[in-house]
Amino acid sequence: MAVFPSPLRIFTAGGTIDKDYRLEENGLVVGDPFVAEVLKTARLAGAVSIVGLSRKDSLEFTDTDREAIGRAVGQAVEDHILLTHGTDTMVETARYLGGLPALAAKTVVLSGAMVPGRVGGSDAPFNIGFACAAALMLAPGVYIAMHGKVFDPAKTRKNRGLGRFEPIDDQE
User: 152 — phi, psi (to 5°)?
Assistant: First the structure.
């Protein structure tokens, strides 16, 4: 059985995974990072460090936000990174990170949720657990890990109609 000595760093960037219903704001807003709740339940809380980068819906992300994420990931001492991110622009951020030479020796996995983590029936807990394992086991590179599958961001899209990520057919 392999043992992975390198620690895992988790960065959070907001998105649906962190959304929570707030009566005073009349709806869903990006709240505290949901990943901390999952790691506590999974008994991994002491084995990783979590750093919040933003609390935004990913549709509001700008190039400046992506640059800040790239700097934070590049400066992390850990080589295994999980970035929780909104699904609407996850592919764009993953493609940006994949083009950064400073990340070439790191394994960076982006994951999120189609349903807010604090809502019953959410895909968030499974996606987080799967993405943590992927970040520790995959070769260096940038990946998207959603719904039990790992994707190459250069060949991936979000299918909004079906609520999933899928490979881009080379023949389209």
Answer: -85, 115
Among residues 48, 13, 7, 58, the alpha carbon closest in space to that of 34 is found at 13
Question: 115: which residues sit within 8 A by CB, 6+ positions away?
Answer: 16, 121, 122, 123, 124
Specify which residues 145 forms β-bridges with: 150
Render pLDDT for 41-61 as a digit per residue (tens, 0 to 9): 776 655 678 888 988 888 889
Give the C-alpha separation, 51 to 68, whole Å. 13
The pLDDT of residue 20 is above 90 = no
Identity at 146, one-letter amino acid code: M
Say how far apart CA 130 and CA 133 lie, in whole Å.
5
- Secondary structure (3-state) at 81: strand
171 pLDDT higher than 50: no
Beta bridge partners, 169, equal none
